[in-house]
Amino acid sequence: EGVQPQEYTLVKMEVVKPFPLKLGPLEGKRVFLAAATLRPETLYGQTNAWVLPDGKYGAYEISETDVFILTERAARNLAYQNFSKIPQKPSCLVELTGQDLIGLPLRSPLGVIDIIYTLPMLSILTNKGTGIVTCVPSDSPDDYMALHDLKAKPALREKFGVKDEWMPSDIIPIINIPEYGDRTAEKVCLDLKIKSQNEKDKLAEGKKLVYLKGFTEGTMIIGEFAGRKVQEVKPIIKAQLIESGEAILYSE
Ligand code: A2H
């Protein structure tokens, strides 16, 4: 955690009913996996959601009707930011592990895929954001490589019980960047010769690169704002998601 507070968009990805047994106590509530992102404009290209298999999560009451699944740390921060049914205090209905969440079907805002599935990512930090991350393989090198690993390694899929039908059939191109094209993450991973999600230093370099390029030089090629610069429409998309109740702002 840095010195400056970081503001994230928390995207509400609704768990599709019927709930699995573990979520039984949440029957009758609206339950969301809440993902922290710095790039809400990439939701168009979301193919999955990521959780840390060994990570500890909980289902927290945010309001009378809504429950967010995230880390305890994030729930505490949210409670201080007035997002808790009990003022200033997290209220946990069910304790969960990341493994419990793998395979959950979700509906996420803006995405072109109707129902997406939760998958395991091993590089998720539990001391950042909510411990839940959107998977956008077109524009995030981390997401691209983590999917690549799951696709290339049947043993990895088996270890976490990942079914083939939860994996995306394709990358969804959403942003064009001059000299990078519209599958920027794939190009950056090729250019930097990144072989797996474990290459932390190279991925950090790639992540910085696409974050900067995407923001300063990217143009949307999908959705309501196709043809317009990322820089220009990012705040509009963010504001719309918050206005519609599909996301909230969160700082840490
Ligand atoms: B970003 P920063 Cl398309 N552990 O969202 C690991 N990574 C996490 C995380 C956690 N606990 N919480 C959030 N993140 C990811 C989209 C995206 C992101 C794209 C491109 C770049 C990018 C789709 N995943 O991040 O360390 C989330 O991934 C580049 C900066 O706070 C979040 O935004 O700077 C980003 O890392 C937050 O990174």
Q: What's a concise summary of this model?
A:
The protein has 252 residues and is of the alpha+beta class. 28% of the residues lie in helices and 23% in strands. The longest helix has 18 residues.
Topology:
Elements: E1 7-15, E2 30-37, E3 48-51, E4 56-61, E5 66-70, H1 72-80, E6 92-97, H2 98-101, E7 105-107, E8 116-120, E9 132-135, H3 141-152, H4 154-159, E10 175-176, H5 184-191, H6 200-217, E11 219-220, H7 230-243, E12 247-251
Parallel strand pairs: 2-5, 3-8
Antiparallel strand pairs: 1-2, 1-7, 1-12, 3-9, 4-5, 4-6, 7-8, 10-11
Task: Please give a handful of descriptors for the protein shown.
10-stranded mixed beta sheet; binds ligand A2H; 252 residues; alpha+beta; 7 helices; two-stranded antiparallel ribbon; Isoleucyl-tRNA Synthetase, domain 2; 28% helix
- CATH superfamily assignment? Valyl/Leucyl/Isoleucyl-tRNA synthetase, editing domain
What does the radius of gyration come to? 17 Å
As for the number of domains, it is 1
**SSE topology string:** EEEEEHEHEEEHHEHHEHE
Overall, the morphology is: globular
Tally of extended strands?
A: 12
Largest sheet: 10 strands, mixed
The name of the CATH architecture is Alpha-Beta Complex
- Give start-end ranges of low-pLDDT stretches: none
